[in-house]
Amino acid sequence: MGKAKLIIEKDFKNAKIDDRIYGSFIEHLGRAVYGGIYQPGHFCADEDGFRTDVIRLVKDLKVPIVRYPGGNFVSAYRWEDGIGPVNERPKRLEPAWQSTETNEVGLHEFHKWCEKAGTQTMMAVNLGTRGIEAACDLLEYCNHPSGTRLSDLRIKNGAKDPFNIKVWCLGNEMDGPWQIGHKTMEEYGRLAAETAKAMKIIDPAIELVSCGSSGIGMPTFPEWEAVTLDHTYDYVDYISLHQYYGNSNNDTADFLASSDDMDRFIKSVIAACDYVKAKKRSKKTLNLSFDEWNVWFHSNGQDQKIYDQRLWPKAPALLEDVYTFEDALLVGLMLITLMKNGDRVKMACLAQLVNVIAPIMTQADGSAWKQTIFYPYMHASVFGRGTVMTPVMTSTVHETSGHGAVTDVEAVAVLNEAENTITVFAVNRNISEDAQFEMKIAGFENFRAEEHIVMAGYDLKAVNSPTCEHVQPQVISDLVVDGEDTVCTLKAASWNVMRFQLD
Q1: CATH homologous superfamily of domain 2-9+389-502?
Q2: CA 212, CA 227: separation in Å to the nearest integer?
Q3: 279-318 tens-digit pLDDT
């Protein structure tokens, strides 16, 4: 049996977690929009065509912010196509995902959906095929109260009040050769800086995200960060990170070590940001927006068959990964990694939210259902708000094929001072041995164990489906409290949420 110990000291606080770290992403890709959040005529559709079963699940997740409309999609998008009377909007070829975009859902519709789902918009602007003028026009349309052509056009189109979108992404994955309008480091840095300067003149209250590398494996990483931030550092508030993991080699132990790569990625980007800060003699600290992250590999073969047909279909079933129990474990590990780095990672987006590499799936003629990854995401979003404690952790280790020796247990603690609770999130990523887990909660007068939520004992390849939610959490009573110490057993290959009430 493995062993691990987490020390939680009242005065050792790392950072206040920004709730937006539990954000998500909806792109005009596959069935995310059409057949996902929007399906007129469905038995769950409301008067605006939005699926209420999906909205209910999004509310269960407490999603604070949603990135929109892409993704690769945004790099050829004309935002003007999505305003005005729906029956007058153009249908266009969408080159990023080789589909036909009908523009039935645009700015106004998505804003209305966000209001119904209780979330905010993180808007991306097209810096692939367009640039400064289009970005500024979009901002004016969305956020300026009235009295100009574009703000009055928004009012004419049915939105008297501004959308007041706070967060704006300056393009998407502009380092990627696959990107429509791919830029060099210098090209993107100059364009993003000038766009940022102009947008902040129009609305100084907005926050801007500069495009970082599309993954830790990009050949230009981290030079991309250093060069582009040399241009944008003074004008933006965040730099983005994107990373997906897969288990195509069917090596679960090594797959579950991928969160160590994620942590290394985050710390490397922080180092690049701080290098530019030092170079510029700046007093400003740049934070991170990890606005695409997830497991993605199951659907690759199926998607390629659709692309090969070149039929340009509307809302084809793309990127519809069906997630396993081991995928849920890695998602939990990635969430723990984000929390641990809450001092610098202030926003993050699980990519994506509905149907497309998503925790929520829908049937065209049926209901919405929960994938395995739904639960760790929900637990983190619901219980992981407050202050992340400085992690003081020891654990036994096990060997992996690609990452060497890695810890059996990864864990983090969050103090919610408003609710007077401490929540510990932990994954035993040793797939063959249980671990004895000790938590020392020091500096607090009294506390009591409330519950231990666990996902364990499932076949690593087990999946959920529309008819059977095979993988789901259970509540057990095994937390043994003795003074400041609490002991329990973390089952091999398990996701755990341990909740304590402070008296």
Answers
A1: Golgi alpha-mannosidase II (2.60.40.1180)
A2: 10
A3: 999 999 999 999 999 999 999 999 998 888 888 999 999 9
CA distance 328 to 493: 10
User: What crossing angle do the helices spanning 185-202 and 132-143 adopt, rounded to 10°?
Assistant: 30
3-state secondary structure of 322: coil
Chain position carrying tokens 């002991």? 487
> How much is the pLDDT for 445?
85
Q: Considering the entire predicted model, what is its pTM?
A: 0.97
Given a contact cutoff of 8 angstroms between Cβ atoms, the answer to whether 459 and 397 are in contact is: no
Pick the CATH number of 18-383 from 3.40.50.970, 3.10.450.50, 3.20.20.80, 3.40.50.300: 3.20.20.80
Annotation says 292 is catalytic: yes
Q: What are the residue boundaries of the structural domains of the chain, listed by start?
A: 2-9+389-502, 18-383
Give residue-wise pLDDT tens across range 420-462: 999 999 999 999 999 999 999 999 988 999 999 999 999 999 9
**Secondary structure E strands in 286-408:** 287-295, 345-351, 360-362, 368-370, 387-389, 392-395, 397-400, 404-407
Mind listing the pLDDT tens digit for each residue in 69-124? 999 999 999 999 999 999 999 999 999 999 999 999 999 999 999 999 999 999 99
Q: Where are the alpha helices (DSSP H) in 257-297?
A: 258-279
* Residue among 292, 320, 326, 410 flagged as catalytic: 292
Q: What does the alpha-carbon distance between residue 323 and residue 371 come to, in Å, rounded to a whole number?
A: 6
Which one is catalytic: 27, 109, 173, 207?
A: 173
**For residue 22, which of 57, 52, 88, 66 has the smallest C-alpha distance?**
66
Q: Which of 228-237, 304-313, 340-349, 465-474 has the lowest mean pLDDT?
A: 304-313
**Residue 201, token pair as written in the block:** 């003149």
DSSP state, residue 330: H
H-helix or E-strand containing 9? strand 2-9
Sequential DSSP letters for 50-73? BBHHHHHHHHHHT--EEEES-SGG
